[in-house]
Amino acid sequence: GQQVMQIPQYQHVQEGEDFTTYCNSSTTLSNIQWYKQRPGGHPVFLIQLVKSGEVKKQKRLTFQFGEAKKNSSLHITATQTTDVGTYFCAGGTSYGKLTFGQGTILTVHP
Amino acid sequence: DSGVTQTPKHLITATGQRVTLRCSPRSGDLSVYWYQQSLDQGLQFLIQYYNGEERAKGNILERFSAQQFPDLHSELNLSSLELGDSALYFCASSVGQGMAFFGQGTRLTVV
């Protein structure tokens, strides 16, 4: 079945450093979605990418969808302590199934 | 507030028992997903329903079952519970392929 792999599993950064998490799917995706889960909370939708090669920005966050629609990345510039949490990618299929990666747990040291 | 309601929030039960988790999706959302999240783990996809019908199945154990009712609420039934079933169970809903909105989750503890 479809698998979505996400790396790294953990990332510790100093406040102000950049952070990137990568997502790879075993199959071509209809779309890729990114979610953030704060400690003790539930996943919250950040963004959806649909087009091959698409790049979207949200303030300090930059999201990319690969040309083959099988990989994606999330880059955070100049991390802040409010960025802590687990970042999940989720690969979407044409019939709506959402398969989540294992997530990257981000710790930001002040 | 995501608009997705899950009950109960917490559940403590003994091994071998059976429990039912309930999810009310956002108004208008036809898709309901169930995910299991163990401590510090990712979101394991269990099952998806769309407008009352099973749409996709993940690594859901045979001891687990789910359904979506005509009013679109969904229930996840977990039976013959084992210690390893202790986890956070999330329900999410969406419109088709769009963004998924997650409920607050049900924390199940099997003792």
Summarize the structure.
The complex is a heterodimer of chains A (110) and B (111). By secondary structure, chain A is an all-beta fold.
How would you characterize the overall build of this protein?
The complex is a heterodimer of chains A (110) and B (111). Chain A has 110 residues and is mainly beta. Chain A is built from no helices and eleven strands. In chain A, strands 2, 4, 5, 9, 10 and 11 form a six-stranded mixed sheet that branches. In chain A, a hairpin with a 6-residue loop joins β4 (31-37) and β5. Chain B has 111 residues and is mainly β. Chain B has no helices and eleven strands. In chain B, the strands form two sheets. In chain B, strands 2, 4, 5, 6, 9, 10 and 11 form a seven-stranded mixed sheet that branches. Chain B is globular and about 35 Å long. Chain B starts with a strand and ends with a strand. The chains are: A mainly beta (110), B mainly beta (111). Chain A binds chain B through residues 1, 6, 30-31, 33, 35, 42-45, 48, 88, 90, 92-103, 105, and chain B through 2, 31, 33, 35, 40-43, 45, 48, 50, 55-56, 58, 90, 92, 94, 96-105.
How would you describe this structure in keywords?
heterodimer; A: 110 residues; mainly beta; globular; B: 111 residues; seven-stranded mixed β-sheet; four-stranded antiparallel β-sheet
Largest interface: A-B, 26 and 27 residues
Pattern of helices and strands of chain B? EEEEEEEEEEE
SS content category of chain B:
mainly beta
Mean pLDDT of chain A: 94
Radius of gyration of chain A: 13 Å
First-last Cα distance of chain B:
31 Å
Query: What is the approximate shape of chain B?
Result: globular
Mean pLDDT of chain B: 93
Question: What ranges of chain B have pLDDT less than 50 throughout 5 or more consecutive residues?
Answer: none
Instruction: Give the radius of gyration of chain B.
Output: 13 Å
Q: How large is the count of helical segments of chain B?
A: 0
Note the beta-strand portion of chain B. Answer: over 45%
Largest sheet of chain B: 7 strands, mixed
Order of helices and strands of chain A: EEEEEEEEEEE
